[in-house]
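Exercise 3.2. Students should predict the tertiary structure of the chain below and write it as structure tokens, then compare their answer with the key that follows.

Predict this chain's 3D structure.
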Amino acid sequence: MSNSALISHGTRRGLMLVISSPSGAGKTSLSRRLVADHPDLTLSISATTRAARKGEEDGREYHFVSREVFEDLIADDAFLEYAEVHEHRYGTLQEPVMTALEAGRDILFDIDWQGAMAIAAAAPADVVRVFILPPSMEELSRRLHARAQDDEDVIQRRLGRAAGEIAMWAEYDYVIVNEDYDVAYIQLEHIYRAERQKRARNPWLKPFVQSLLDEA
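Answer key:
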């Protein structure tokens, strides 16, 4: 087999890009842009017990399910991870994620630190963790109010939890301060591109290198 054939048809191992932040720091907008710009990257669709917000659709942002259905999925060991966040449950279904990785497709997770830690524990070699920080707590509050998605009491609860979420920053592989959205996006994209090139995620390299040595 020629080197060019190996390069063209080599199958890489997909990765799980896990992005977390306190609510309002920008992880969702950064995640959606990265997925839109990279066809090999797919956004993981979690199951959740919370109600859909205005403009959200079942199966697009989340799989919206009842607590009873969620409990049944837990009993069936169907989740890669699940957690309770802001009085609601969220979980990542295991089967579609692992199938995608084996086929060389990348999955992006827009999840909280609890989910990030659970995924990293379940599949450490496949996970890349990125934490998004706000430039200040004042700016975090401004962004939460500006997006006008939640009532004031919900916003205050989110701000109250932010310090505990930010305290988990050291558990992540990379940290980005989202002061300027475009700069933060460039940093995130660089991380994603570099992680795709890691030797362990490209098993086709071993036979390719051997073919080079055989020709030497």
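Discussion points: DSSP finds nine helices and nine strands in the chain. The two ends are 15 Å apart (CA to CA).
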